[in-house]
Specification:
α23 links the parallel β20 and β21. By secondary structure, this protein is α+β, with helices and mostly antiparallel strands. The chain has four domains: 203 residues; 106 residues, 2-Layer Sandwich (Beta-Lactamase), CATH 3.30.450; 182 residues, Response regulator (Rossmann fold, 3-Layer(aba) Sandwich), CATH 3.40.50.2300; 154 residues, Histidine kinase-like ATPase, C-terminal domain (Heat Shock Protein 90, 2-Layer Sandwich), CATH 3.30.565.10. The protein is built from 24 helices and 21 strands. Helix content is 59%, strand content 15%. Strands 1, 2, 3, 4, 5, 6 and 7 form a seven-stranded antiparallel β-sheet that branches. Strands 9-11-12-14-13 form a five-stranded mixed β-sheet.
């Protein structure tokens, strides 16, 4: 065989080995690109899910703005968000069909999003047609929050799954990178062996040098192609921190082109500062080269582009090492963080809007309470005065009682609204004392006697429980019994029957059953019985008034006492049964009577010797309540301003101060502050502001007690009598 043939064979074998090496590297590169595409798809799906959440929040913000203001311009971001959400959901649906997302999760997400959009549209339509209260009824039902929680949970589940896929892809990428490196090393070794073999046959020194140069150039080209294909910005430096490579994304984000950037110090091109302090941030490349570790940027890092514009970024830096571990430079990978920052800002703005809406709601309830209560006080005072007049005709007296009951019902509706707010905030206070539950029931029945008489209803009491004493707030427990009793009377036909029984269960708890033969309840009504603002949709049931708060408040009160409440019915027309179960305590020891002492005290301090300073700027309320108190024998001086009240308190001696809170020249709090500088006279605040914080402020200011308007005269007389007895 000639030398030329040997050379040809040598070159052929060398070419085949090189071709095989290139093929192996290409296969590895293609596999790397496939994995990169999988990573991109995972990140795209995660972005779609997160963008859907962000857009839903935009829609909810626009809806809240319209609900609060009624201004149609607030619906523009809402309409835009709805269109965008539909687009995002279409993308998710397409991803599910393509197998990129679990179809069940996407279907659940679609269902929840459409439910949420329907809920938003419904509140907007209610705001247009029926006004803010109707829309707020849905908002306050917490259904919207529950939907958003379900959407977030579904989104989190989808995101977690895609993150798991992303982690698996990255794991495969690392494995592939390892085998790619191994393949390149093996191919290089084979090439070297081939070149060594060829060296003995043809121009060994020259051929070996040329092959090494060709391999280095090929590896460099392959590295640049790989780095240029990555979706994030990539910047490579040498061991001196000078830039040797920028991919297209890095050029776009920094504003530098590769021609001008290569050879520049990294901090010149990658100029970063802290967004809040505006101080220069240490380049991660410097730490990577100094410590040889992977470094990530802290939050709030901003990149100053070449044109001076700022761009929030997230990045990490890592060392580049030879196979023998020698440091060759650093690689910096970073990405645009603008959308994430914008989403954070939108979230903060939405939270601020929600807090403002909540404060506006509380202020609205407080003002509504005051404006509705104040006019009812003189009405109740006049009605109470008429009821005590023995010369009124019986039919007129019945009308007076009917009007008084409806006024008290109006006040009760206001109290229910305030109670619901206290319950939602967890600030419903209970004044616990040992009480006889049987006496509380009998008191409630007596209170509802006029309603029973009007409906010709009969009540049967079978109070046989041996353990009947409970540690509870008597007023609140009577409120629970009263709500059940009112419903039983309201939803029972004239001449109906109500049976109340008591017993003890196996644990010794008190079990109270209220059974009636009224119109009963459907399964749908029972399922919503204890939800706020819920009333039955059955035509046979919706014959009563109210806001649908009574039973939800009753449940909260029973829960607060450590008890249970349940409702049952065999269906429409078959009556209803309410069961209240409460923990019991031992009967307290009997206390010695002090009736003679109290009687003597009452004789010494009769009503005619008890003087009251009444401060009220509402003329009708002042006139009627003053007249009623004087009719009962009290000495009353009335005035309408803080200045007059302070003057009278200094000129005369009074045994009790009754004061409205809202006065022309100040407030009742201002008044009690001045009174307390020279007097410890007992004081009762009369107020239309009944929120928990209002009541607490009255106590801290110096009032001994308070009564919410409209004032029930029986409660006022009982409270005055307490102070009179202590006088």
């Amino acid at each position: 065989m000639t030398r030329q043939s040997k050379v040809a064979i040598t070159l052929f074998i060398s070419g085949m080995i090189l071709a095989a090496s290139v093929a192996a590297v290409c296969v590895m590169a293609m596999a790397t690109m496939r994995i990169h595409e999988q990573v991109l798809r995972c990140r795209t799906m995660i972005d779609h899910v997160q963008q859907t959440l962000s857009t839903l929040k935009d829609a909810e913000t626009g809806q809240r703005g319209y609900l609060l203001t009624g201004n149609e311009t607030y619906l523009e971001p809402y309409d835009d968000a709805v269109k965008q959400v539909n687009g995002e959901m279409a993308a998710l649906f397409a991803a599910a069909k393509a197998g990129s997302l679990p179809p069940d999760d996407v279907a659940e997400m679609l269902r929840l999003v459409h439910q949420k959009l329907d809920e938003l549209a419904k509140t907007i339509e209610l705001r247009r047609i029926q006004g803010l209260p109707a829309a707020l009824a849905i908002v306050n039902s917490n259904s919207g929050k529950l939907m958003m929680d379900a959407i977030r949970a579904t989104a989190a589940r989808m995101t977690d799954r895609k993150n798991a896929d992303l982690s698996e892809s990255l794991k495969h990428a690392n494995t592939l990178a390892f085998y790619s490196g191994l393949a390149i090393i093996v191919a290089g070794l084979l090439d070297i062996l081939t070149l060594l073999w060829a060296y003995r046959r043809v121009a060994e020194e020259i051929k070996s040098r040329d092959a090494a140069a060709l391999e280095a150039h090929r590896q460099k080209d392959l590295l640049q192609v790989t780095l240029a294909s990555i979706g994030d910005a990539v910047m490579v430096t040498d061991t001196q921190g000078r830039i040797t490579f920028l991919n297209d994304v890095a050029e776009k984000l920094t504003g530098w082109d590769s021609h001008n950037a290569v050879g520049q110090p990294c901090e010149e091109v990658f100029n970063i500062i802290n967004e809040e302090s505006r101080k220069t941030v240490e380049s991660p490349v410097d730490r990577v080269l100094a410590e040889g570790i992977i470094v990530g940027l802290a939050n709030h890092t901003v990149l100053i582009r070449k044109d001076g514009n700022e761009l929030p970024i997230d990045d990490s830096g890592a060392p580049i090492r030879d196979p023998d571990g020698r440091l060759r430079g650093a690689v910096l990978v970073f990405r645009d963080f603008s959308e994430h920052k914008a989403a954070e800002r939108r979230m903060a703005q939405a939270n601020d809007a929600l807090r403002a809406a909540n404060q506006a709601k509380d202020q609205f309830l407080a003002t509504l309470s005051h404006e509705l209560r104040a006019p009812l006080t003189p009405v109740l005072a006049a009605l109470t005065s008429w009821e005590t007049n023995n010369h009124l005709a019986s039919d007129f007296l019945a009308d007076v009682k009917m009007v008084r009951r409806n006024v008290e019902l109006e006040a009760r509706l206001i109290d229910d609204l305030l109670d619901l707010t206290r319950i939602a905030r967890g600030k419903l206070s209970l004044n616990l004392e040992v009480s006889d539950a049987h006496e509380l029931i009998q008191s409630v029945v007596a209170t509802h006697q006029s309603m029973l008489t009007a409906k010709r209803s009969k009540v049967s009491l079978k109070l046989d429980a041996p353990r009947r004493f409970i540690k509870a707030d008597p007023a609140r427990v009577q409120q629970v019994f009263g709500n059940i009793m009112s419903n039983a009377i309201k939803f029972t036909d004239p001449g109906g029957r109500i049976e109340i029984t008591s017993s003890n269960d196996a644990q010794g708890r008190l079990k109270l059953i209220f059974a009636d033969n009224g119109i009963g309840m459907s399964a749908d009504t029972l399922s919503r019985m204890f939800l706020p603002f819920e009333q039955s949709q059955d035509a046979t049931v919706r014959n009563g008034s109210g806001l649908g708060l009574g039973m939800s408040i009753a449940k909260a009160l029973v829960d607060g006492h450590g008890g249970e409440i349940a409702a049952a019915s065999d269906g429409p027309g078959r009556g209803s049964i309410f069961t209240v179960t409460l923990p019991t305590v031992d009967q307290p020891p009997l206390q010695a009577s002090s009736g003679s002492t109290s009687h003597e005290s009452n004789n010494r301090h009769g009503k005619q010797d008890f003087s009251i300073l009444y401060v009220e700027d509402h003329e009708d309320s002042a006139e009627m309540l003053t007249r009623l108190l004087r009719t009962l024998g009290y000495r009353v001086e009335s005035c309408g301003t803080v200045a007059d009240a302070v003057r009278l308190a200094k000129e005369q001696k009074f045994d009790l101060l009754l004061s409205d809170i809202g006065l022309p020249d100040g407030t009742g709090i201002d008044l009690i502050g001045q009174i307390r500088q020279h007097s410890s006279i007992p004081a009762i605040a009369l107020t239309g502001f009944g929120m928990e914080r209002d009541i607490e402020s009255y106590r801290q200011a110096g009032f001994n007690s308070h009564l919410a308007k409209p004032i029930t005269f029986q409660k006022l007389e009982e409270l005055i009598d307490q102070f009179r007895r202590a006088h």
